[in-house]
């Protein structure tokens, strides 16, 4: 089966980025979200990302227009029926993802591959809610998707080797570097990254230094492009907390305990860039 048409579920920052890179590689993309406003915001994010690339002369205006034309938006998941591959990029909530996978299983052609961009949830458990567990796989992109080269490709226990090969080839076709990773809480990227971010939040909680100073330590001391607290704001503090909870529940190890300040910030609705306030303020 050749993959020419891709469906993306969820028009947030990850879903819109995934739609953009797939369309940039010449694939036809249907971007689905229950919420029309989210779809329009997603398309807006794609347009501004493409505009940055045009301004930097990395892309012509004609190519940017062609990319946007290859993306259609829809609030009805039934529009995903013709896709050979659907990538789910909804909120990091297992119940919601299971519900989406059950619907996709009914809507999509029997040989379509169902992938999830989950950042930590078990691919094996998601595969198990479908009638096609051998065609379910993890494709974990990094934020911002157009800039970051990595895709973790995560096989469920049930995934066919042929599906793994096809998804790995597709990740390369869209300009990414796939890494073969086993299915375990947080996979590899977030198993390493999130405890670091959580520890940075503990440093702030314990008043060891200000947010700016903590970030400066990691930027200037370790050559990280962004400090961990600014990165947490980019990822979304709700997503960071969900991933820490998956690590904590999955490994039953107190070293993954979410920092109480992270929990409080999420309770307060301070979710980072997307809500205008996190460890920093965004005008
Ligand atoms: N679309 C297009 N271009 C973009 C862009 C976007 N969304 N975001 C940034 N850029 C471009 C800029 O135009 C700029 O281009 P030039 O190099 O040609 O000038 C370049 O990227 C650098 O951008 P900036 O100068 O604005 O800022 P920067 O140098 O700090 O780079 C960054 C921005 C690429 C985001 C960099 O800060 C970075 O790599 N940060 C770390 C990101 C990271 O760690 N991501 C992983 C998060 S974890 C995750 O996603 C997994 C999970 O499940 C939680």
UniProtKB/TrEMBL annotation:
Coiled coil: none annotated. This is 3-hydroxybutyryl-CoA dehydrogenase. It comes from Motiliproteus coralliicola. Its EC number is 1.1.1.157. It holds the Pfam family 3HCDH. InterPro entries: 3-OHacyl-CoA_DH, 3-OHacyl-CoA_DH_NAD-bd, 3HC_DH_C, 6-PGluconate_DH-like_C_sf, 6PGD_dom2, NAD(P)-bd_dom_sf. NCBIfam families: PRK05808.1, PRK07530.1, PRK07819.1. Keywords: NAD, Oxidoreductase. The keyword Isomerase does not apply. GO terms for biological process: fatty acid metabolic process. NAD(+) binds at residues 10-15, 33, 92, 97, 119, 143, 274. Residues 5-183 form the 3-hydroxyacyl-CoA dehydrogenase NAD binding domain. PANTHER family: 3-HYDROXYACYL-COA DEHYDROGENASE FAMILY PROTEIN (PTHR48075), 3-HYDROXYBUTYRYL-COA DEHYDROGENASE (PTHR48075:SF5). It is an enzyme of class 1 (oxidoreductase). The keyword Oxidoreductase applies. GO terms for molecular function: 3-hydroxybutyryl-CoA dehydrogenase activity; NAD+ binding.
């Amino acid at each position: 089966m050749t993959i020419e048409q891709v469906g993306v579920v969820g028009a947030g920052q990850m879903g819109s980025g995934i739609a953009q890179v797939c369309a940039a590689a010449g694939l036809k993309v249907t971007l689905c979200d229950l919420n029309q406003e989210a779809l329009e915001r997603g398309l807006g994010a794609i347009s501004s990302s493409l505009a940055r690339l045009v301004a930097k002369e990395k892309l012509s205006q004609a190519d940017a227009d062609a990319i946007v034309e290859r993306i259609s938006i829809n609030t009805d998941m039934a529009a995903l029926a013709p896709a050979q591959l659907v990538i789910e990029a909804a909120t990091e909530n297992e119940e919601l993802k299971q519900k989406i996978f059950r619907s996709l299983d009914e809507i999509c052609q029997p040989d379509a591959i169902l992938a999830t961009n989950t950042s930590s949830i078990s691919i094996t458990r998601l595969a198990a809610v479908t009638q096609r567990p051998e065609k379910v796989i993890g494709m974990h992109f990094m934020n911002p998707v157009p800039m970051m080269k990595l895709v973790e490709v995560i096989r469920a226990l049930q995934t066919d080797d042929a599906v793994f090969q096809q998804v790995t080839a597709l990740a390369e076709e869209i300009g990414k570097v796939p890494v073969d990773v086993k299915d375990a809480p947080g996979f590899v990227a977030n198993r390493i990254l999130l405890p670091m971010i959580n520890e940075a939040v503990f440093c702030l909680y314990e008043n060891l230094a200000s947010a700016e100073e903590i970030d400066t330590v990691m930027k200037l001391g370790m050559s990280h492009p962004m400090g961990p607290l600014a990165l947490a704001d980019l990822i979304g503090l709700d997503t960071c907390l969900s991933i820490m909870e998956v690590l904590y529940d999955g490994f039953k190890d107190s070293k993954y305990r979410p920092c109480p300040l992270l929990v409080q910030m999420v309770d307060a609705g301070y979710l980072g860039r997307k809500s205008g306030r996190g460890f920093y303020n965004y005008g």
